[in-house]
Amino acid sequence: MSAIVARQLVKHFAPDIRAVDGIDLDVPEGHIFGFLGQNGSGKTTTVKMLATLLRPTSGTAEVAGINVLTDPGGVRKRIGVAMQEVGLDEMQTGRELMTLQARLMGIGAAEAKRRVANLLDVVTLTEAADRPIKGYSGGMKRRLDLACALVHGPRIIFLDEPTTGLDPITRDAVWRYVQELHADGVTFFLTTQYLEEADRLASDIAIMDSGKIVARGSPAALKAEFANDALSLTFDRANGAVERATELLRGFEGAEEVRADEGEVTVYMRNGAAAVAQVVRALDDAGIALEQLRLTHPTLDDVFVRATGHRLEVDEGGAARPPAARGGDDARGH
Fold first, then answer.
1. CA-wise closest residue to 210 among 17, 54, 58, 35
2. Which end of the chain is least crowded, N or C, by CB within 10 Å?
């Protein structure tokens, strides 16, 4: 059964600005769905439409089986949302705000107290829980906003870059809690700029670029479709070994690309592990002495480059910044 469905979802902000350009989505219940893309790709606009915070220009969407256009209130009762823009009542304390959120959603006083205490511990705000929010740092406010999205125990949760700007320890605690909820059947729709987190957590991933979904599948399937294993071979630069190996490997069956750089030749191919023995044998038959061999498997970063033509760059402050487009070997070939 589907938790989230969208058909030809479109959002225009001006006649010539198509933030979301006719996307289809189908997220099964109980999945962690990862939505990847640089700033301006349309992923946050998509989340806002699904969470009833923004009305679509056209298309349809259902969340928890409820139409986001005809019954937005019904959708809101069943979801939790933590957006990039944090909006909190700064006159309250963190504990007061979380308790109010829980009580407004119909949770009893004792259960609300238990949930608030548990979540304050998860986001490491227990010591600051009884201080006014106006004295919180930006990172503390972000953690509190995330906890408020989870406190009423929704079965579908939208998290828009929830761990951006968090320190590694807090980020790890948040993701452990996400995994606990996921094990209990909660559905997550999360946008993230941390590719390694999407790789570790998401069972299904979509890559968004210029308002369109350009790739979709499990992390393993995307790597198999868009990226290759890299077989790196090191040679003694004397006696033309690098040049000879490069020429030989460019004609090797299954080699999709060969690059040579200062004594090392890298061969990109599908299923590199199966080709290792054949490569070594071919080099030995040609009398080319191999010093070292290293096999590396593709990452989601490699997939992102192949699917969009550029890397997902993140600055030191934790915000994804639109990178310069890259062509040539990094451009998508599909």
1. 17
2. N
